[in-house]
Every structure is written in structure tokens, then in C-alpha cells.
Automatic annotation (TrEMBL):
Belongs to the HMG-CoA lyase family. This is hydroxymethylglutaryl-CoA lyase. Keywords: Lyase, Metal-binding. InterPro entries: Aldolase_TIM, HMG_CoA_lyase_AS, HMGL, PYR_CT. One of its GO terms (molecular function) is metal ion binding. Its EC number is 4.1.3.4. SUPFAM superfamilies: Aldolase. It comes from the Bacteria.
């Protein structure tokens, strides 16, 4: 088994973690969450979305969040941009990276961004071009790469096809996302190996939701396939409003604990992340979904 010596962890809780919250989360709390994560050492934090507030009301204050955060010089603050309007808002907010998000499933593409896969790529074209002209890093996210809530299993060829199209748009990084967390290690290995035949593995990331408790195994399988960038969310917060029943992303605390045990460098302070997980869970009035976070808190309380 060949594993990387170092991985990049992209913290997505301020965006993916909070976007599905029913009650509006105060802008000040969102800002403090990003600031705490910055202080913990993340080099990339998905901080906001510039999407239609009619579609995702929780993310309506993206401009204020980006204006309020304290930026660590070595950290990239990313935002989601579904169209040129979102990109312009992202540029005004001085986002370091914009994320265009498509899907490997036609049905999910319609539900999430109200257009077909082909239409989404056409819509992303001017965004990609504008990002290149402005010198802003561009990431492409592929939802439902391991299964779709509306269509079932996703053919690997569909994932590879969208990855190629995103590469052609000029994406610097491409996320293979298990939106509903149905993927298992064997399939993850197959999908990652297929994608990395067309995209440099150093530019591919794994974005796993933990709905079926498979995320850590899936991360391990992805690392064996050459992937060294992973997305996670403190306290396991999250879920997509257009993927019913899907739970949060894999918990950052659990990923960091596993990486520590494997001797893989992350550059992130696990204790600071665990404290942040407890803090945000208390504010959202819920229990943390992180096993490692909960165990570390219990040990501290003794
Ligand atoms: C793409 C659209 C806009 C199409 O939505 P639409 O209704 O087809 O488009 P529209 O152009 O008719 O716009 C509808 C309204 O939104 C406005 N609007 C339009 N664009 C913007 C914008 N950028 N910022 C602010 N407002 C905007 C626009 O002006 C209009 O307002 P109205 O005229 O009715 O008053 C919509 O479907 C949308 O915003 N979808 C976002 C869905 C979303 O954010 N989903 C969650 C993120 S993806 C995810 O979680 C998956 C991921 C990335 O984590 C990976 C994984 O796990 O799978």
C-alpha cells in the first residue's frame, strides 16, 4: 500500500457544512467559524457561496462573510459560483478561488442548478474565462460521482466525461464528490483510477459525505489510488439541500486523527479543530457527528 506523506485538507464547513441549516446562522458566527479554522492552520477554506438566495437562503450573506473574515496569508478562501453573476460577486469579495459545480448525473444537475450537464458546462465557460482573466484559481466539483439520489449508480464514464470537460474549461483542481455518501472503497478506487487517467492525480480531490459511514475507508482507497487532497467539515456538519437524506461531510477531526495515526502530514492542529467542532455544535444546538472530536472532548473533561 503506497500512501502520500502529506495531504491537503480543504475545510468546507462554512459552506457545505452550513448551507443546509434550516435556521439562519448569524453572519458573525459564520465569520468566527472561518477565523477559528484559519487559526487552526487550514490552507484552503470553502467560506461562502454566491448562488441564488432563492435556492439556498442560508448562503445569502456570502459578501458579508468574506468582508468580515481575517485572512491568513497562506490560506485560500474559496466560494461557489454557479454563473457569471456569482463570479462577479466573488471577485468583488476578493475570493482566492471560485468553484463551479456540476454533476455526473443529469437528474441531479437539474435539481441542483436547474439545467442539464451540457447546459451547465456552457454556463461555466464564461465563468472559467473570467476567472482566468482575473487570475483567480478555478476548481470544478463533480456531484454524484458515486451515486445519485434520483438516478442510482453513476456510470464511471459519466464522471470521467465531466472531469474532462472541467479540465478543458481550465480547472486547476477537480473534486470527485460522493454527494449522498453511498460510495464504498472498491468503487472509489475504480472511479479515482479512471479519473486520474485523464487528470493529473495532484489536481484531483475526494469530497466524501459520511451518510453510510464509509468516508474514512473511501479516503484510504482514494489515497491508494494516488489522491492527496480531501474535503472535510468540522463536527461532520453539512449536506446538500438538493440531496434528501444525505448527511454531512466526513468530519475533519476524524480525518485528522486518521492521518496522524498514518504518519501523514496535514499541517493542521487537531486540538484546535476539535475545540472548534464542539464550539460550533453548541451554537447550532446539536451533538457533533465526529467520533474523534467527541472522544477527545470526553478525554479532556476527565
Ligand atoms: C444556478 C441557479 C442560479 C439557477 O437558477 P435559475 O432559477 O435557473 O436561474 P435564474 O437565472 O432564473 O435565477 C433565479 C433567481 O436567482 C437570481 N440569481 C441567479 N444567479 C444568482 C447568483 N449567482 N447570485 C444571486 N442571485 C442569483 C436571479 O437574479 C433570479 O432572481 P429573480 O429575478 O427571480 O429575483 C440556481 O439553481 C442556484 O443558485 N443553485 C445553487 C444550488 C446550490 O447552491 N446547491 C448547493 C451547492 S452544490 C453542493 O452542495 C454539492 C457539492 C459542491 O458540495 C459537492 C457534493 O457533495 O456533491
Amino acid at each position: 500500500m503506497s500512501l502520500p506523506s502529506k495531504v491537503k485538507i480543504v475545510e468546507v464547513s462554512p459552506r457545505d457544512g452550513l448551507q443546509n441549516e434550516k435556521e439562519f446562522v448569524d453572519t458573525a458566527l459564520k465569520i468566527e467559524l472561518v477565523n477559528r479554522l484559519s487559526a487552526a492552520g487550514f490552507v484552503n477554506i470553502e467560506s461562502a457561496s454566491f448562488v441564488s438566495p432563492k435556492w439556498v437562503p442560508q448562503m445569502a450573506d456570502g459578501g458579508d462573510v468574506m468582508a468580515g473574515i481575517i485572512r491568513r496569508p497562506d490560506t485560500l478562501y474559496s466560494v461557489l459560483t454557479p454563473n457569471l453573476r456569482g463570479f462577479e460577486a466573488a471577485l468583488a469579495a476578493h475570493a482566492d478561488e471560485v468553484v463551479i459545480f456540476g454533476a455526473a448525473s443529469e437528474a441531479f444537475s437539474q435539481k441542483n442548478i436547474n439545467c442539464s450537464i451540457a447546459e451547465s458546462i456552457a454556463r461555466f465557460e464564461p465563468v472559467a474565462q473570467a476567472a482566468k482573466e482575473a487570475g483567480v484559481r478555478l476548481r470544478g466539483s463533480i456531484s454524484c460521482a458515486l451515486g445519485c439520489p434520483y438516478q442510482g449508480e453513476t456510470p464511471i464514464e459519466s464522471v470521467v466525461d465531466v472531469a474532462q470537460r472541467m479540465l478543458a474549461l481550465g480547472c486547476d483542481e477537480i473534486d470527485v464528490a460522493d454527494t449522498i455518501g453511498t460510495g464504498t472503497a472498491k468503487r472509489v478506487g475504480q472511479v479515482m483510477r479512471a479519473v486520474t487517467e485523464v487528470v493529473d492525480p495532484a489536481r484531483v480531490s475526494g469530497h466524501f459525505h459520511d451518510t453510510y459511514g464509509q468516508s474514512l475507508a473511501n479516503i484510504l482507497a482514494a489515497m491508494e489510488a494516488g489522491i492527496s487532497i480531501f474535503h472535510s467539515s468540522v463536527a461532520g456538519l453539512g449536506g446538500c439541500p438538493y440531496a434528501k437524506g444525505a448527511t454531512g461531510n466526513v468530519a475533519t477531526e476524524d480525518v485528522l486523527y486518521m492521518m496522524q495515526g498514518l504518519g501523514i502530514e496535514t499541517g493542521i492542529d487537531l486540538e484546535a479543530v476539535a475545540d472548534t467542532g464542539l464550539w460550533i455544535s453548541q451554537h447550532l444546538n446539536r451533538k457533533s457527528s465526529s467520533r474523534a472530536g467527541t472522544a477527545l472532548a470526553a478525554r479532556k473533561a476527565v
